[in-house]
Structures are given as C-alpha cells and as structure tokens.
Amino acid sequence: MVSSSKTVKLSMELADAASWYCAVVLLALILIASIRTNSVSWDEHVRGGQLSTRPCDEIYVVGEGETLHTISDKCGDPFIVERNPHIHDPDDVFPGLVIRIIPSTDGGGHTN
User: Locate the LysM domain: which residues (predicted)?
Assistant: First the structure.
C-alpha cells in the first residue's frame, strides 16, 4: 500500500508539473500572437496612408498603390525623377521600389 500511495503522489506531482508547463506554453503563444497582431495592424496603418504627416526618410520604399505624384505630394519632393536615374519610366513605379527623397524646406524649391 505504501508503494501505491507513492505512485499516486508521483503521478499527481507529474500532472501538476505538466499543467504548469502547458499554462506557460499557452501564455507564450498568446503573447506571440498578440505581438504579431499588433505589428500587422501597425503595418496596415502605415500602408493605409494614415501617417502621411510623418516626414519621409531619404531612402523611401514605394508602397502598394503609390505613384511618384502621390509620393512627391506626401514627401514634398518635386524632383524625384531627377534624383533617381534608375527610374526610366515615371509610370513604371511598383511596390518595393527604393527611391531617394529630399523633402523641400521652402515648400517646393530644389534643396541641392
């Protein structure tokens, strides 16, 4: 009978440890899913043009649905084509294209 109670006690300890392990793993998965959800919604927020008041970086990656005209308006750089000799056709702009932007400080003048 002593052996049986030790077996039951060992089984209870093992089940308790396993349930704690499962709880920790479940919590980690929830946190990871939460982080991924927040990063996706932030990414959609940026691509949706919601941050149009944000200053443009000198290196700009064209987003979905953007044109040189919309980027020029957004970033205040009317000389995008001149600064980017790799753009042979201004109508051939696609998501992922990297361009150089220099926002004008005087509301439309050339700053070089």
Answer: 60-101
Per-residue pLDDT, 89: 87
Tell me how far apart the 2 most distant CA atoms of the chain are, in Å: 93
Taking the whole predicted model, whether its pTM rises above 0.70 is answered as no
Dihedral pair phi/psi, residue 59, rounded to 5°: -100, 120
- HEC letters along 26-78: HHHHHHHHHHHHHHHHHHHHHHCCCCCCCCCCCEEECCCCCCHHHHHHHHCCC
> Mean pLDDT in each 10-residue stretch from start to end of the chain (112 residues)?
80 89 84 68 46 68 90 89 88 90 61 42
Please write down the long-range contacts of 61-64, taking CB distance under 8 Å and 24 or more positions apart: 61/96, 61/97, 61/98, 61/99, 62/93, 62/94, 62/95, 62/96, 62/97, 62/98, 62/99, 63/95, 64/95
